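Re-run with default settings, no changes from the original entry. Doing this only to confirm the output is reproducible before filing.
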Amino acid sequence: MISWQEVQNKARTPGSVVLKQWMAQREATRIQNATHSLTDGTRGSELYSWLVDGLSSAGKPVNEQTALSVSAVYACIGIIGGAIASMPFHIYKRTEDGRERTTHDLWWFFNESPHPSWTASAFWEYIAQSRLFHGDAFARIHRASRLSPKIVSIEPLHPSAVTVEQVDGLLRYTIIDDDATLVTIDQGDMLHIPGIGFNGQRSISVLRHALRTSAGTALAADEYSASFFANSARPDFILTTDEKMSTDTINDLRSQWQAKYGGSARSHLPAVLQGGMKAQQLTMNSEDAQLLATRQFQVEDICRIFGVPPFMVGHQEKTSSWGQGIEQLGISFVKYTLQRHLRPIEQEINRKIWPRSAGYFAEFNTAGLERGDLKTRYEAYRVAIGRAGEPGFMTVNEARRIENMKPIPGGDQLHTGTNDGQNATATGAE
């Protein structure tokens, strides 16, 4: 590298070869430094995205940020995460007769705020997004002390910030704490909710496998669509003339035409041609390019990956195999989509939070999503309470509790099938 002092000594006149060489070297260094982040593998660079998440077959890096820019992915993540966040998480105690709902100190964590920085709804949506994107979801259990079983908070962690290894048959987790120090967490202090392909340590990343091609193709289709409409959604055309033109003339004409008529803002300006030149439009439309068909297929493919029916993300279909009516749709969504996420969450929480001897367990209450319309619910209550002399299996107050109504005196009597009420059996309130 030539120093600036050498340049001053040797380059006294403009146009000096030494000065030009030094300027060229300095410009090359500046460009290299400016683009260094693209190739050094630092977080946020293109190389980092390629190494961590991988380029799709369409040539687009697929990570959390780029995937969420696809409307179908955003809708599926929002629907599943929002549904889980909207369901109450009840705590029960095992009894000789079965179970009963109980008031537990941990109810606040799972239904209101698990951590000072998180609400319960944001916590559940983050857990769902982590599992849907990375296959695993993690949440650290903070206890009062190392020797105390008392839980003071539950903090969600990003899957990429957690390292998992198996030691003596147990899992050990390593994270970077707020003060940039490595922290090792025992298996009992980490909620680890695995997904498909769990090998005892980690699950398969949905981003790097299932979504890699589908979301990448959708990103490429979106980019092509945007550029297509930026050009006023008009196909390309050619300029023809009988005169022979040099290469420089052709390049100048192309540049002038683009500057004058390029872009949607200038697409309707009248073109003025001289010297017998003619404009001929090429016959290419969006259907020939399969733009619309590709975009529609990618919506269905992404919904297939997440298990969400396409109509729930606004993709209208002529027929649906999910049943008819809100009740059937809600039941099908809970049964075939949400249960894939609810059961792993419940099992992990129950085995990490409460030992077997405690007799407690927790479940999501899916009744709100499975409720039918008003007429259907009331007819079901009539059958459950007992009608036309038939015995019932639910009391009036039990039905009122489901509808968030106050109990009434005598509403805990179970109808046994008699019309005079003399043989009704008192069951007592729950």
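The first strand starts at residue 89 and ends at 95. The two ends are 86 Å apart (CA to CA).
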